[in-house]
Amino acid sequence: MTTIKFQLEPLTCPSCIKKIEGKLGKMNGVEEAKVMFNSSKVKATFNTEQVTAEELQEIIEKLGYPVLSSKTA
Amino acid sequence: MGKIKKIHVVIVSGILLALALMFHFLDMEIWKNTALIAGTFVAGYSIAKKAIQSVMMKAFSIELLVTIAVIGALIIGEYVESAAVTFLFLFGAYLEARTLEKTRSSLRTLMDMAPLEATVLKNGERVIMPVGDIEEGDRILIQSGEKVAIDGRIVSGQAFINEAAITGESVPASKKLKDQVFSGTIIDNGYVEVEAEKVGDDTTFAKIIELVEEAQEAKAKTQKFLERFANVYTPAILVLSVLVFVFTQNVELAITFLVIACPGALVISAPVSLVAGIGNGAKNGTLLKGGEVMENLAKIDVIVFDKTGTLTKGKPAVTGMKAFGMKEEELLKITAEAEIISEHHLGRTIVNEAEHRGLTLTNEPEDFTVEKGHGLYATVAGKSVVIGNRKLLSKNGIQLPGNIESYAIQEEKNGNTAIFVGIDNKLAGVISIADQIRAKAADAIRQLKAAGVKHTVMLTGDNTHTAEKVARQLGIDQVFAEMLPEDKVNHIKRLKAEGYRVAMVGDGINDAPAIALADVGMAMGAAGTDAAMETADVVLMADKLSKIPYAYSLAKATVRNMKQNMFFAVGTVALLLVGVLLGKIFLASGMLIHELSVLIVILNAIRLVRYKQREQGEVKEMRAAIPETK
């Protein structure tokens, strides 16, 4: 299990939380996805054998939220 | 890039609106409508895109409502309406992002203080390395003006260090050999070499950032309530708008109702205040772990202090000694030898005093037993030694003659802790130890009272005479002395059972159980002690009592701000809905008011970023009357 944090552009609408958490959470290999609204970050715990950090980033960006940086804990 | 794009879209659609207005005055109807439709599509595109994205995620969003409303407006030919609504919506979102940024700015300024590289001594050579590559045990060289990149101890040199990033104090602290330095602090003046003890995410600085980020997400009760409310509110509004349509047969009105009712300001009203409040605290070395802590702290009516290390400096010193049947030095030597393996702070004080006087401690204690809260037994050089309070001595059949008892009481009334030493079942001496009261302790207590704390309590394992003297000097209402650690826990339990909302202040190590049990646990001087940072609800990085009234007033101001925002947001939505139903407010004007209300809520929260505690009266330098240590 790996935990990664994506830094997004400032999030403004709380409804984005549901969108991102919902989509990421449903992905194969993602244990937990949490949006930290106030720091505009997405924290995801995932299994590296099933899914990669790049794939997660791609999904977030597809939803309309460019990823500025990411950091693996 | 995204942000530039957004503002560009806003500007283009704004220009198109202005053009439309110009064409309107020139009576060029076709050009006017073309400009309006173009404006609608320019601004509407990104809104519709988000709307479609959220529909695919089966999430309900305001963008969807706006898109429906705009399409409706286009169909019935209300081009002014459609262009104005899309423009206002985007412009509002842009301004919100900008201002929200401000409420989050405190944390950002903190994060910007993180250094990126450092000079490391590797194999005798100076190498500039990125922070991420530094390892524990590396020797870091730091000059004036440079940032400390790791947590560690000074192995050479000395400096004045600005620790604002950690403690919120901008007055530089003097640091010398063996002193601890923290990542994120800045060398104001001087030069030091530091051996890295903690690097990367383990540093206190990194932990603060992490803690604040988590705290901002930890929801307040009010917030949870708001979310439950929104869960009922949104479907209710949907049903209501259908009813509006059924009764009025007016699609426009129904959609307007739906869009205007969207609880934008309401949803962010509580979080923005909290984020601003928590951020302000963090910048001032006061970490509040989330919304609920904020609310609890604001409601506190009893505040309980641990004495040693909290109200006093926690650096006790031997202030007097009386030996019976032996020399003072001899008494000190044998006591220190017995205490050498003790971890008790009074024991350490005696050992330090012996070393200070140049005594060499030769004998090792045997049969060392601690009687928790009372003292200890040990055998030193064949002699059985008992060190501790009255109870421990009388338990061992050692009686105090009247004159010695009155000497001890006198010492205690002067603020000392009297420690009795018995050797081979006979009283051998009394050692007096005193701890200095912290500067401005009395001010802090007074400020807390002025800010609304009803009752202050002090708990201590120390004797009654000393405890009462300290309490009197500080203006503390109630004292409980001679308490064992579990008594402190029980006392907190009792206060809570009596219905008080209790805050407990301590150093976060010795009194961790009491801190964990209290409604709000506060740890003081927590920089560098991970355990204290983890246990406490409110972590005061600096070793300063003045941060306690600050935290309390900040919590009150934040909760007040949150309430103002909620009332304002609810009020605005209610008025708007009534206005829509009475036909006084239309989509564009409703959108304008709606966006304005969101902005006002954010602007109100920004006040908290700048919040400073009001100075309460003259702040006098309060000197402890307890004997000065040398």
> By CATH's scheme, which homologous superfamily of the largest domain in chain B applies?
HAD superfamily/HAD-like
Strand content of chain A is 35-45%
Structural category of chain B: alpha+beta
Radius of gyration of chain B: 33 Å
Please write the CATH class name of chain A: Alpha Beta
Radius of gyration of chain A, in angstroms, nearest whole number? 11 Å
What form of chain B results from the Cα inertia axes? elongated
Instruction: Please describe the biggest sheet of chain B, giving its number of strands, its sense, and whether it closes into a barrel.
Output: 7 strands, antiparallel
Structure commentary:
The complex is a heterodimer of chains A (73) and B (630). Chain A is built from two helices and four strands. Chain A is an alpha+beta fold and 73 residues long. Chain A has one domain: Alpha-Beta Plaits (2-Layer Sandwich). Chain A has a four-stranded antiparallel beta sheet, covered by helices on one side. In chain B, 53% of the residues lie in helices and 18% in strands. Classes of the chains: A alpha+beta (73), B alpha+beta (630). At the A-B interface, helix 1 of A face helix 2, helix 4, helix 7 and helix 10 of B.
Q: What characteristics describe this protein?
A:
heterodimer, A: 73 residues, alpha+beta, Alpha-Beta Plaits, four-stranded antiparallel sheet, 2 helices, 4 strands, 29% helix, 36% strand, globular, B: 630 residues, Calcium-transporting ATPase, cytoplasmic transduction domain A, 4 domains, seven-stranded antiparallel sheet, seven-stranded mixed sheet, 18% strand, disordered C terminus
